Amino acid sequence: MGVGRPVAAVAAARASVRDARAAADLARRAGPGGAPVRWFEDLDLVAWALTTADPAGVQAKAAALLAPLADDGVLLESLSAYLAHNLNAVRAARALSIHPNSLRYRLARIEERLGCSLQDPGTIGLLHAAVGVLRGGPAA
């Protein structure tokens, strides 16, 4: 179940309903162990934007961004772990059961394939959103 923003006028109800649907979508993706009721305030900006946008369009944009990695599951898994561990290569490598230098090598290959720096906050934000979308939700 989702709860939208409170509104003072009936004219604003449509936006509140849209927000409630986005919050409900977040609750559904959380699964049986997650909170059964989510509030609009629970959605961060990216989650809200992704859940209110055209799902097919969002999926297509995420796939296009990660297309250079699509043929290499190891690189995609490495990127996902790196993002999931807050850009900490040592913890991500441990989660992948590889040496940190091996992960750093993979990250360099990812940068080369994507043509961008994994040190750029904007790039990290886009990749985090794209990986989350491909993994089944706005946030990985």
Give the helices and strands, then pairings.
Blueprint (H helix, E strand, L loop, with lengths): L1 E2 L9 H18 L7 E2 L5 H8 L2 H12 L6 H12 L4 H8 L3 H15 L6 H14 L6
Parallel strand pairs: 1-2
Description:
With 140 residues, the protein is mostly helical. It folds into two domains: 1-52, no CATH class; 54-140, Arc Repressor Mutant, subunit A (Orthogonal Bundle), CATH 1.10.10. It is 62% helix and 3% strand. It is built from seven helices and two strands; from the N terminus they run βαβαααααα. Strands 1-2 form a two-stranded parallel ribbon. The longest helix has 18 residues, at 13-30. The two termini are 21 Å apart.
CATH fold name of the largest domain: Arc Repressor Mutant, subunit A
Q: Look at the structure and name the CATH superfamily of the largest domain.
A: PucR C-terminal helix-turn-helix domain
What structural class do the secondary elements suggest? mainly alpha
Strand content: under 5%
Helical content (DSSP H or I, runs of 4+): 55-70%
Number of strand elements: 2
Largest sheet: 2 strands, parallel
* CATH C-level class of the largest domain: Mainly Alpha
Q: Which descriptor suits the 3D outline?
A: elongated
* Average pLDDT reading: 88
How many helices? The count is 7
Rg over C-alpha atoms, rounded to the nearest angstrom: 17 Å
Poorly predicted spans: none
How far do the termini sit from each other? 21 Å
| Tally of discrete structural domains | 2
CATH architecture of the largest domain: Orthogonal Bundle
Protein name: PucR family transcriptional regulator
Pfam families: HTH_30
